[in-house]
Amino acid sequence: MISAVLFIPLFLGLCSLLFKNRIVNRIALLASPALYITIAIARWLGYTWHVLPDWLLAYFSFDSIGLFFFSVMAVVFAATSVYSLFYFKEHDLSIKQESIYVAEILFFVIAMTGVILATHLALLWVFVEATTLTSALLIYFEKKKSSLEAAWKYVYICSIGIALAFVGIILLSVGSKSIGSLFFNDLYARASEINPFWLKISFAFIFVGFGTKIGIAPIHAWLPDAHSEAPSPVSALLSGTLLNSAFLGLLRVQEIFNRAHSEQFSNFIFLLTGFLSLMVCAVFMLRIKNYKRMLAYSSIENMGILFIAVSLGKPGVFALLLHTLSHSFSKTALFLTSGNILHIYKSKKIENVQGLLQKDSRTGWLWIISSLSILGLPPFPAFISKFLIIKAFWLNGSSWLAIPFFLFLVVISFGMANAVFKMVYGKSQFEEENKFKLSSFAYLPQLVLLLVLLMIGINMPQQVFELINNAAGFFIN
Asked: How far apart are CA 221 and CA 200, in angstroms?
């Protein structure tokens, strides 16, 4: 299975580059997420098979938390791939441009898969760096001046961050020289042998490094530019899967602290940066003018929520994983829908988008419902996850933190809802006969994602509960 998810998309991406054929491009683009979903389901059911040699298999594994993040990525990958068919038609891409797009998407997904499945800290770092290189090409795909600036800003800031993470890994290896291994299983089993001083120093570097990639405040400067300038399906992948991949790397490092019984140090840093991210998002959301940047700041907010959940230990784990799923699906639906809006209005400015429900009622309702989902209104699962986080504050004896947490969420919700309803209501500048009706590929992925979220929020399927619960078992504290 591991060989399939790593090498088959690589082969299909190379075929797209070599043959430059529309049929080959579509087969590569749609077959890869179908393969990912099939393997995720097979792993849920307990099926497995091996093709790679044992020595290579030691470096990749489907553990419980890796399977959860892989499953989320597979669904987001499928949604963005289907929407990309509309993107091809919308931008009238040439066969060569399609081939480059498909290859870059597949190489990017392979890099994220490597991050999720890596069992060795240094190998995980290599794949995180690979995600920077592959996604930078996608950010610059439309070859505009603004996208070039965003791509270079992204590469520059994230490369510095990843370099700091590398320094942290070296410092961790110094502190764990008695272990002589950077395999996660070895670090977990003998975490008590790691020198506490070197462990804490290394965490500071790794946290800043991976935190830069996640886009957590105050090291988030690249994220609003990159997410707003990338093509809409790419923005969905960046927010719905890339941030998760880097976040998983931090979770694996955090578990070392749990096993070494030094989690108070790392939990404080997670909590502080989590609330700082909520504050930054609240400030910018009240005066936001670009709706794609609005979604980017929403990603910063939700990563902050995840950091807060991490800091709460075991009581916050289930909420952490449920919110990860909810954010990924909701934000993917929002970014894909923003592609519809950009196609209709040819502008990213909120003030230039009015009467969306009149212009394209399908896009308007998707925009409203996706926004309600990301804001956490019932019955969407983000409501449940936020409620569980507030409950975890009480269980941890820090109930007073629920007050600033709730206030920040109210301010952010007001700012985002204000922008959304300005866009969907009001008098349209278009005449009645100029109403849009886009391809079904422009609506279907978002509709499916929202239906899945409603199903989880109203009556969570047993399979989803077990997937989340098994992933929560990864944490011992």
From this structure: 26
